[in-house]
Amino acid sequence: MPIEIFSGERLQLAREFRGMTQKQLGDEVAASTALISLCETGKKKDPAADLVEACGSVLGFEPAFFYGTVHDLFRENECSFRHRRNAPERLKDQIRAHATLIGMVVDRLRSLLKFPPLNVPHVVVSGIEEIEAAAERCREYWKIGVDGPILQVSRLLERAGVIVVPNVVQSTKVDAFSRFGRVTMIFLNQAIPSTSRWVFDIAHECGHLVMHRGVPTGSLETEAEADRFASALLMPRRAFARDFRMAPFSWPHIFDLKKRWCTSAAAIIRRSYDLGLLGAVGYRQSFKYMSAKGWRTNGEPHEPPFQSPELLGIALEALGKKVELTLPALCNELHFTAATFRDVTGVLVPFPASETKLTDVIPFPRMA
Length: 368
Prior knowledge:
4 strands, 6% strand
């Protein structure tokens, strides 16, 4: 066993990542819920080696993972969730734990590779006009102008030093998640099959990063502010209004706008209403039509192409090529099992050829 002190935080982190309760973990490792609780709170400072090993086997970590400190725990007050009102707290705990583990990977990669520095402006807003101005300021700050669409919003944020990660938590109750901190990150839930929705979700979380640092989010007010920011970032008012007025309202025109601005028909309808380009009657009738067509639940037609997040994948591909550390060695350093590393990052860890064991192979005699 390592010489570091046992970390209850790390046990809780691993358990929450797997979506397990203390009772469920206790049942799996033949321990009481009370004992698991004592270990996690630090009141049981030196649990038996076999208990630690059993927890590692169940949760997918080497025993050494549970020793030492968590240098950058993603805490509730640092994180923003774009989620349904009935999203359970346990699911949000699981996503924060997942993000913390990715943060561990990113921290180690940053010690080896040069990542883009964090370059996200902070703008304090009060009112709709200031939100519109904040989105325009971001466009100018990132030198993309205010006259056209953002074709690859995930790449824009990654160039600004934000890690964008496809969220592998299989739930449609959380659209996206973001955190501003030592590792600034946006989690994107690609279990929701809508590329236009992914684009808006990234822009929405960008709004939280820009406007809500140190501000509790999740309220109707902060979510509405992030939505307005996302609309303004993706569809700047003057350029969008010009395009919207180029033809009378029709669904072919809406889908032409969708193709140009790379966002959903629903977002376009809402943006046109917010800017006074479409009246309340037309707005309500449009959403009624989309509901009748099933677009709001089953997805819209004419979805735009989507540029998947690249930064973390490029960094992991550099291991063993641009730096000496290999992917299996990184996995070993973090004390993840190969399966857990894949679950955390989506990247398969190759099994080193030197470790291949042939002890169970029965050799056949040579044929004469």
